[in-house]
């Protein structure tokens, strides 16, 4: 009796572990899951680099000095503290995160992208054609930031607040290094949470490729199940004989 109970206990533990692994996989595949710290840092630095790249093209010169008799110094705008302050806070760089949407058809961190997702585009087209589409929220709220984007927006502010000195250090002394590497890889993220940084969008071909891969996997699974059923039938017929 003791052996039977122990065996059932072990089987139960194995099932619990397997269910836990499966549940974790489902969460990781959910496009509406909360953004990881890696994803937040990735898009924060993407937006900050974009602002700095834009202002770095200017040849404007600003003058410093406040006294009437004080000789004013001229300095290139792209080498000033003002440029960094404006890039971070005018308006705050994290407000750019609210321009992102969740593209459920894309994998990993690529699910966050600007522009309307294919799913939403399809639904909008159906509405335009007179089809009654119910999403559980008013139509005028369809384009509002999702919960995932709102959470990334919040976490973005937290990173800027916690690592403002590191950003300033990069700006003044390490602009020869990539900002994402300097901040995300070397400062913010653990080594086991940097995978999203290498994910790059390769256009619509990537979606088509992923769909073909899924379709092929389903066909192979269907064929395996069909063959298994066929063999089982043959086995049953032989046993009856």
From TrEMBL:
UniProt region (Disordered), positions on chain: 208-241
UniProt keywords, alphabetically: Signal
Skewed-composition ranges (Basic residues): 210-224
Signal peptide: 1-23
Residue stretches making up the DUF3456 domain: 38-196
Composition bias, Basic and acidic residues: 229-241
Protein family per UniProt: Belongs to the canopy family.
Name this polypeptide is given: DUF3456 domain-containing protein
Source species: Elysia chlorotica (Eastern emerald elysia)
């Amino acid at each position: 009796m003791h052996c039977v109970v122990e065996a059932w206990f072990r089987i139960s533990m194995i099932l619990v572990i397997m269910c836990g692994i499966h549940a974790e996989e489902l969460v990781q595949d959910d496009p509406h899951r909360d953004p990881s710290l890696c994803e937040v840092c990735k898009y924060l630095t993407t937006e900050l680099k974009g602002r700095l790249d834009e202002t770095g093209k200017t040849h404007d010169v600003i003058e410093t000095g406040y006294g009437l008799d004080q000789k004013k110094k001229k300095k290139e705008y792209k080498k000033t503290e003002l440029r960094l302050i404006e890039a971070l806070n005018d308006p705050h760089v994290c407000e750019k995160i609210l321009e992102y949407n969740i593209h459920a058809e894309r994998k990993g961190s690529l699910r966050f992208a600007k522009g309307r997702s294919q799913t939403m585009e399809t639904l909008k087209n159906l509405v335009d054609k007179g089809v009654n589409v119910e999403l559980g929220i008013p139509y005028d709220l369809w384009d509002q930031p999702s919960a995932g984007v709102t959470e990334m927006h919040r976490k973005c502010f937290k990173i800027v607040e916690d690592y403002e000195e590191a950003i300033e250090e990069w700006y003044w002394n390490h602009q020869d290094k990539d900002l994402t590497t300097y901040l995300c890889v070397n400062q913010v993220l653990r080594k086991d949470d940097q995978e999203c940084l290498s994910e790059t969008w390769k256009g619509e071909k990537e979606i088509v490729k992923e769909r073909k891969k899924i379709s092929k996997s389903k066909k192979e699974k269907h064929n395996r199940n069909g063959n298994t059923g066929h063999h089982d039938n043959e086995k049953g017929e032989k046993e009856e004989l």
